[in-house]
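Quick question about two entries, pasted in order.
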Amino acid sequence: MLNIEEVYYKDLKWEDFLKSKNSISEIDQNKTKIVKEIIENVRVKGDKALREYTKKFDKVEAYDFLVSDKEFEEAFKNVSSEFIENIKEAKENILEYHNLQKPIPYRINRESGTFLGRKVTPLERIGLYVPGGTASYPSSVLMNAIPAIVAGVSEIVIITPPDKNNKINPYVLVTSKILGIDKVYKIGGAQGIAALAYGTESIKKVLKIVGPGNIYVSLAKREVFGEVDIDMIAGPSEILIIADENSNPKYIAADLMSQAEHDILASAILITTSKLLAKKVKEEINKALENLSRRDIILKSLNDFGKIIIIDDIEEAFTISNEIAPEHLEILLDYPSIYLEKIKNAGSIFLGEYSPEPVGDYFAGTNHVLPTGGTAKFSSPLSVEDFMKKSSYVFYSKEDLLKNGEKIIGIANKEGLTAHSFSVKVRLEDEKY
């Protein structure tokens, strides 16, 4: 039975509310210990450890991890031409959006002959984790790989756990091939993350690991950060919807459930000025639940982490939203674009009743790899820049060093770094004699 909590804004205990949200991201120390052991085992034993863990966790005897050409061919036979066309169109939409994100190199030229600037270089090799088993996540391939492709990453490899028949989901393989990625490895879990971070006989070490996974994958990414870069430590999915008496309760109910079905820990929140709308939304959820395959997950998620917050004034909605900093924020108000300036903290913003969150997940072009757990206050969606590094460079002319050398020496001496000042001083002295 649906028992989503309903509360007035003035009665909302902020500290307790935020604590309840944060508690779903607490780290299980026992799982952390297991992950550390797996990583160390793979680091030392390489492929041998990968085979042991694949047999243990995936129930598969692994001999060759790399997906063969024949398996790619079979995958294309097992998906519809309609799916292929849809993926190709989604690819073009996502490319269009991300092509505008390329960071620009620049150079400053001074009359003295000095010049300085920024050099932009793509990462050479990245690894993408795609959840597997009974699930199918071709959208994870699109959203994580396309920014890297636009950035100019030389090599992208995918790891994904096999099913009990040692097969990879055909939709994942087809999407990978459409993007030009033909190195897909049948490896999952923390052991797969370790293989990407340290390399084994079969898998070369990468420079960055991206992609979603379960708690073990997330903990493994956290453990190897520093050895390699990672995208983020993603928590359970979140949606916050702002609506009023003019909003459609059926749409709101559907959108709340679309996020709640991800995970029993997912958070779905409605903020509204209308008590009547809140009632109608709950009625619509109860009606729709009967026909949804993940009904039990949705119910538990909404009952444990869902909330309907009743406000007196729509301005309060943006105060609350900016404090929560949701992963997904839907504005289901008339003329939604006028509220953009009020939003300071959100992963991705969906404007209007015909912009449900799934259009961003799959097709519109924006990226669905988003900050969770309030981290949208200081971080951003995955982008092309995440796969590029920036180097500064400087050519300092003799004229400028003679002019400014004593100033540099003075600052270095104030910091007590006499070798720093000496490296400038020897050049100045050479010019005196």
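Here is the second entry:
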Amino acid sequence: MKLKLIKLFVLLALPFATANAADVNMKFGKPTKEEMQMTTYEADPNADAVVLCRLTDVEYTVEFNGYLVDYHEKCRIKVLKPGGERFAKVVVPYNRNVAGGDRVNASTFSLKSMQFSFGSVSSSVFEDMGGSMIDNTSGSYTDEEVENIKATAFNQEGSKVVKTSMKKSDIKTTKLDDTSYQLEFTVPNVKVGTVIEYEYTIHSQLFWQLRDWYAQCDIPVVYAKLDMNIPNYLLFNIEEQGIQRLSCSCTTGTLRYKLESDPLAAPVVVNTNHYVCVGRNLAAIPKLDGMWNVNDYSAGITTELKRFSVRGSNMMDYAKTWDQVDSMIFDSDELGKRLNDHSPLADELKAAGIADMEFQRQRVEAVCKLVMSKVKWNGKYALSPASPAETLKKGEGSNADINLLLIQSLAEVGVTATPVLLRTRDLGMLPYNFPSIRKISTFLVGVILPGGSKAYLDASSPSGSLNDLPSLMLVERARLLQKGHKSQWINLQKLEK
């Protein structure tokens, strides 16, 4: 497996012929003669399809009670061989009512109190950056919509180019859970030789949480461009990643807006940070066995909010260091403030005499056995747990639900246990260059043993034994939190069982 990954790195590092922007057809709705007659991609003759052009524009709107952000996506793909028809199906994930669902993820730790009133804003409105839900006086501010969807297939039939457009009835929306949805559509009449074009807009209220953008996929990409125009009220950490590199620049731009609340007022101009990232002739990234997340190797851009303000207020830090992220977790109602609560199993733990066991490992194993007999894992990973009493009553829960119950129960018998934050391997690596709370997807339990040694357990482990973690959690970077002590980075791939 390691040899395959090394070979992948070498292949992606090889130089490719450079395409100039002038050589790329950026006008959608009319493929060129060369695109229609194309039968193979010279840089990768085995490719069954190729992305000819992908354009992503990110635009902000300033409103009376906050910001909105739109993602305008356009893509053109050429189907070259059998198998390439799979790109006729397009799936677009989006969020709905994040603040109102039962399932809570990292975004719920983001901004506890964000009340926008552009007339007079005091810093006290933002004083608590930890906590639970986003509380906005004008609404939840957590919805997204997918709009302006167009999809067309272009086929060469004799001397004519025949255009087949998708019908609205071909668009389907699926609810995945309390917060996650996906929109699906299939471009009609796609076959070998087809040029596929589609576009859509994601209209998002999640202005503080920019979507990650990856230029590469499992087929070659001739040209991809990300264009972001962000008001300088919002400062993001921007991290470029991937083996092949993008060409990126940041310049000062402008944004004009007019508040609907004052139609007689003149338009206002604000400065922006204008980011442009371009990828040219990017190689396909194959999905190899053991490659948990292909995006770890893809040329792309990830972001995290660093500082922010609203009109009339000073700039305020969001999270500049991992220590600040730790504080946000400890201050959160769902996790941090519950860590020192008594376990709802306190009476049963006492009756079982577990606290009187001589060795801590015995106590840990006994607590795990009791908790696992009371609550079953429901197959879900989460960061924000439900109330342990509620979890116990239901008899099942996410790994976060059960892990919090484990931490509380271990404390009842004199064992020090604490959360270990991580991002599961299937979701990709945590960023190295900046702290990111929204990249954290779950936590497991770290047990501090006599002498300062540490061991780990998670509710999703079938055995419930120390250091017997599922492979999904064997990450290189996990963060062990300790109240009153410096948090530590832990390599979970080097555990002794």
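Reply: Confidence is low (pLDDT under 50) at residues 5-11, 99-140. Residues 213 and 301 are 5 Å apart (CA to CA). Hope that helps.
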